[in-house]
Amino acid sequence: MLSGTQFIKQSVSLHLFFARIMKEHAIFMKLGFTPKNSTFAEQADDFNVKFEALLKEVVDLSKGVVSPDVLKSGEIVTPYTLNAEKATQYFTGVKIDTKITVEEAILNGHISVEPNPTLESKLGMVNKKAIELISGLIQLKKMVLSDVLSCKITTSNYPMMLEHITEEAELYLHMVKKLQNQEEIDSEKQSLNQIIFWNEIMAEHSKFIRGLLDPSENELIKLANKFANEFDKLEEESKAAISTPRKIDKVTRDSLKCTKEIQDFKTQGTQGILTCKIKSIIIPLLSDHVLREANHYLRLLKKYNRIEQ
Ligand SMILES: [Fe+2]
Ligand SMILES: [Fe+2]
Asked: What is the distance in A from the centroid of ligand 2 to the CA of 48?
């Protein structure tokens, strides 16, 4: 059973991270359709607008109640998010409310939160709205994937990417539902499941990056491939730890080490894309997006590994 203040803290950190992630998935989907599938593009854009509104609402409710470690982690915004949004708007014409990003960058962290029943009930409504929105977006992602796999349509998003963003949405939905049932989402009991999930996600990011770099970017492609292999291995090892719990500590440490390395790789990648030094077909906002997901995973791993942040 969650206390009122735990409910507040966990709801805001969950949405600050994931509502932005969903909004960007909708943008990536929208940009991937051909002119023939403009109806799908409109549906994706509708989710972009709705998640943006949800995020804005959460940012307004977050003032004074976000944990400093969440803000510090770089999972909400990074030093590159604003420029990545501006570059993405410039290249594609997609509309992005960058004021939200500016506001998020100046949010202050608070360790202790006072009980606040009004805020609790407002966040309860946000959670309810989020459940509806995420479920709708999952449906759209699954429909698009199924049409791609049955060769009814084509998009510039890999089928694996469509599956990947569906899985992220499903995790978000699962956690919001738990919060609405007053259940803990931050407990260490769920650590192994989170480690398995995010190791797979990191492996897939490496594979997307490998496939979206210009074929002439040999060194970066080799590095991305190295990360893909390492995280594939870590995913297997973390799955094996389900039946051998004594291996959990080691796989947590190894995942932490590898995630720090991929965080560095993604940071350099985002810088390189924003300064036009890397040749690729990576949308600038996608490079910042995958960096934020690594930052989120790194915060979780540090917590599981009890390392001082
Ligand atoms: Fe994502
Ligand atoms: Fe991802």
From this structure: 17
